Amino acid sequence: MKIMRNSLVIWYCFIAVILSACSGVKFSEWRFPYMYPVQQGNYVTEQQLSQLKVGMTKDQVSFVVGHPVTQFMFNSQQWQYMFQQFRNDKLRNSYIVNINFESDIMKSVESAGQVFIK
Fold this sequence. Notes:
- The protein is built from three helices and five strands; from the N terminus they run αβααββββ.
- It is an alpha+beta fold.
- Strands 1, 2, 3, 4 and 5 form a five-stranded antiparallel sheet that branches.
């Protein structure tokens, strides 16, 4: 009787494992504990970039898009706005916007990656 009970328990565990494989849960996207989506850097939209005009001062640029999180340490005339969005330790979105100045007057704007459209 005891052997039959043990074999039934093993059999039920085996069936439970097999049925859980049919559940459709993607364990590659499931994390425990829950990992909050992380956004790092400056959130710059296409609308903000369209307001930037060549010839603006640094104060005017910082009013439109805010102060950069980092400044290029070898060139104080270049501001970098970087943004990265992670979900479950995977990079989902990333972009960099470089604003170049000459004598504290904006000279050019360069971007790499998809900037958010609002």
